[in-house]
Design brief:
A hairpin with a 2-residue loop joins strand 12 and strand 13. This protein has helices spanning 197-205, 209-227, and strands spanning 2-4, 22-25, 28-30, 40-44, 50-53, 65-76, 79-83, 90-95, 102-107, 118-120, 130-137, 142-147, 150-156, 168-170, 182-191. The model has no long low-confidence stretch (mean pLDDT 89). It has a single domain, classed as Jelly Rolls, CATH 2.60.120. Strands 1, 3, 4, 6, 11, 12, 13 and 15 form an 8-stranded antiparallel sheet that branches. The protein has 228 residues and is mainly beta. The chain is built from 2 helices and 15 strands. The longest helix has 19 residues, at 209-227.
Length: 228
């Protein structure tokens, strides 16, 4: 539904045919996942450093969803991808409880009532790249947490329409607290289905710079066929 490479060519914008708009505030460009110059956006771990993705119909998946991206933590835990910039929608984050390096997520209800947290402690080591994500399958009610293409946790939360009707913030929410993610982010992807293991593998491979251009061309061709 959307692909945000987060680099110095595409900035914070979606390169899929839906062309969602993003704005980076208080950030810098840093080396990417393969060391390419300007291949990622670095968030500073403060309230005034974040990426905001404009609300679009494509990001509002309502039922099933998969969010995947690369992160390079730099020591400040906080929201990695958070629907609703001033509250709690669907959330993927680095937790600051139970020690550093905890990957966690919540698939909250559309009315913003909390659902149980899913987490995996101690897997987000600082100063290295991690391919992370969360998926929710409305048909089964199961949330899965992903790390480097492996399922590392799962939880049955039941069927519910999910809180994806808001803008998305990466790094910091628009509320006063001390919970801000510091690190680099790259290759953020949204899907309106729960990806399988094999599809997660392909999503990671798609993040290679040479692959991104090939895949985006294929996406555009498929989009044109649907339009015709």
């Amino acid at each position: 539904m959307a692909v945000y490479p987060f680099n110095n060519e595409t900035l914070a914008n979606d390169v899929s045919p839906y062309k969602g708009i993003g704005h980076a505030v208080g950030t810098t460009f840093s080396p990417g996942i393969y060391g390419e110059p300007g291949g990622s956006i670095e968030i500073q771990g403060t309230a005034d450093s974040y990426i905001e993705l404009q609300k679009t119909g494509t990001l509002d998946t309502r039922k099933s969803i998969t969010i995947v991206l690369y992160v390079y933590p730099l020591g400040s835990a906080g929201p990695i991808v958070n629907y609703k910039k001033d509250g709690h929608g669907v959330q993927l984050y680095e937790s600051d409880s139970n020690g550093r390096g905890t990957l966690a997520a919540r698939i909250n209800r559309r009315n913003q009532n909390y659902k149980p947290e899913i987490r995996k402690v101690g897997i987000l080591r600082s100063n290295e790249w991690h391919f992370v994500g969360v998926s929710y399958n409305w048909s089964t009610g199961v949330v899965k947490l992903w790390h480097n293409r492996q399922q590392v946790a799962s939880k049955d939360i039941g069927r519910t329409e999910i809180a994806t009707q808001f803008d998305v913030r990466v790094g910091a929410r628009q509320i006063v607290n001390d919970f801000y993610f510091g690190g680099r982010v790259a290759c953020l992807q949204f899907y309106s289905k729960a990806l399988t293991q094999r599809q997660i593998d392909k999503a990671q491979i798609a993040c290679k710079p040479c692959k991104l251009k090939q895949i985006f061309r294929k996406i555009i061709l498929l989009y044109k066929k649907k339009s015709d």
